[in-house]
Design brief:
single chain, alpha+beta, 10 helices, 33% helix
Length: 482
């Protein structure tokens, strides 16, 4: 559903917000080693929707305070929202902030009893909340204009630290790639008053570490408060390519300083967002210069209003690719691995290890069991890569359903045909980490260990990263040509 006319059209925009904080007591998802369940609320978790339409096409962007929403949940939610609004599900984009202190959803791990009930009820309520949220944004539509700008903020650092003896650990790599660009989209009413501020950057939301027992949006919470206090309008944080980027302060160790760090990083992000926001003019521009005579000659100009018909193009396009995973081991190896993981789990339980440590060995056992069963099935392993793109005028947004490395974002932005391009991970699902080809040779958590945590029977291959970049650029080029 795209415009066929070259005439500019009027933009309408609507924004809405709901609270999506789960019940205290639900298990949080983000740190496998985390012991226990949520015990408090540091800040409310929210979902915010921005609806854009030019009278022909409607697109809704939703930003959620949650680690991710995987399939099939996210597919069902997009379908429901599309049905509610009378638009294709492909015109719905759901991006997750990747806060590690949000709710665990059903399907991530086997649950029983109270946890199973809490998670199943929460995902059902979340689906209804996001559907209602989109409907509210649709009901709030009003004439609008849109503009974009770019800033830069040093809140993240490449976390793939190279060890002297070889190998990679999660640490600090000052020479590694980071996309520090803050992409800002300003949506105003016709008087220039802000209706919504969209801001995106790629950085793991892990300032509050695994010892934190409170539900929290992490550093996005204080950033949001500062931005909205200044703009007097809702804001949407969109998570970028954070796969190999941690906050500069590292993962919080549980002391009071981690809350201070969250406030500081939030303030840094908010400050750069606001500086960029302030430089975007949507409703007027400088007119011709004229000279007036006072004691001295003075150059002045008057502001001229910009046209209300401001949409050159609004549309989306997406592509789903079924890609091969790496080859599986043979059955003998898989069964041996399973026996080793079973022994490690049983030994940890017998020793009375800490709950967090038992979480880890149980997860590894579950993964080994999955690998053994997958090998026995004798079928090739594939996964669906979902790449989505949107264009409004010279603004392009490209997304992928996983934890993309920063290098992928930098490559897409460098070659995009659109002047203001945003690249996002954690959108419309999350399969796992998407490393660069070079990272596969180096190893590390994102290449090896994350496969187990994401319960993937096999790893991705070095071809996945270049395929993401190629597909995103093809979609952006398709949109730019219209």
């Amino acid at each position: 559903m795209t415009n066929s006319s070259t005439e500019r059209r009027r933009l309408q925009a609507g924004v809405s917000r709901v609270t999506i904080t789960p019940p205290v007591g639900i298990r949080m998802l983000g740190y496998t080693v985390q012991a226990g369940n949520s015990e408090a609320i540091e800040r409310e978790l929210t979902a915010t929707a921005l609806m854009l339409t030019d009278g022909q096409t409607k697109v809704v962007v939703i930003a959620c305070d949650i680690v991710f929403i995987q399939s099939p949940h996210v597919d069902r939610m997009r379908d429901r929202i599309g049905e509610k609004l009378g638009i294709p599900a492909a015109h719905v984009m759901i991006n997750c902030s990747h806060t590690h202190l949000g709710a665990m959803l059903p399907g991530w791990k086997t649950e029983t009893g109270e946890q199973q009930r809490l998670q199943e009820r929460y995902v059902a309520v979340l689906e209804e909340s996001l559907t209602g949220l989109a409907a509210m944004a649709n009901g709030n539509l009003q004439p609008a204009r849109i503009g974009a700008g770019r800033g830069s903020v040093a809140i993240g650092i490449n976390r793939r630290e190279k060890l002297p003896g070889g190998g990679i650990m999660i640490g600090e790599n000052p020479e590694g790639a980071v996309d520090r660009e803050v992409s800002v989209i300003r949506v105003d009413d016709l008087t220039g008053k802000t209706l919504a501020t969209v801001y995106a950057v790629g950085c793991h939301t892990v300032v509050l570490g695994p010892k934190t027992k409170s539900l929290s949006p992490d550093f996005i919470g204080p950033a949001r408060e500062i931005i909205e206090a200044t703009t007097a309008a809702p804001s949407l944080f969109l998570q970028g390519a954070a796969g190999n980027v941690n906050p500069v302060c590292g993962i919080g160790t549980g002391g009071p300083e981690q809350y201070d760090d969250a406030e500081r990083l939030g303030a840094m992000l908010a400050g750069e967002t606001l500086k960029t926001w302030a430089g975007i003019r949507t409703h007027n521009r400088s007119g011709p210069r004229r000279v007036v005579q006072s004691v001295a000659a003075i150059s002045v100009w008057d502001y001229e209003p910009l046209p209300t018909d401001c949409v050159e193009f609004l549309g989306t396009v997406s592509r789903r690719l079924t890609l091969d995973m790496a080859p599986l081991p043979d059955q003998e190896f898989a069964d041996k691995q399973l026996a080793e993981r079973r022994h490690a789990r049983d030994a940890a339980i017998a020793r009375g290890d800490a709950p967090g440590a038992i979480n880890v060995v149980q997860r590894l056992y579950d993964w080994a069991e999955l690998v053994s069963q997958t090998v026995a099935a004798g079928k090739p392993v594939t996964r669906d890569l979902d790449v989505w793109a949107m264009r409004i005028n010279d603004i392009g947004i490209a997304t992928v359903n996983g934890e993309a490395f920063a290098e992928l974002s930098l490559q897409v932005k460098a070659k995009s045909p659109l002047a203001n391009t945003v690249f996002l991970g954690y959108s419309n699902g999350c399969l796992g980490y998407f490393p660069t080809p070079e990272a596969f040779a180096e190893g590390g958590m994102e290449v090896i260990d994350s496969v187990r945590n994401y319960m993937l029977p096999a790893s991705f291959t070095p071809e996945w990263g270049p395929t993401i970049v190629k597909t995103a650029l093809e979609l952006l080029a398709e949109l730019a040509a219209k």
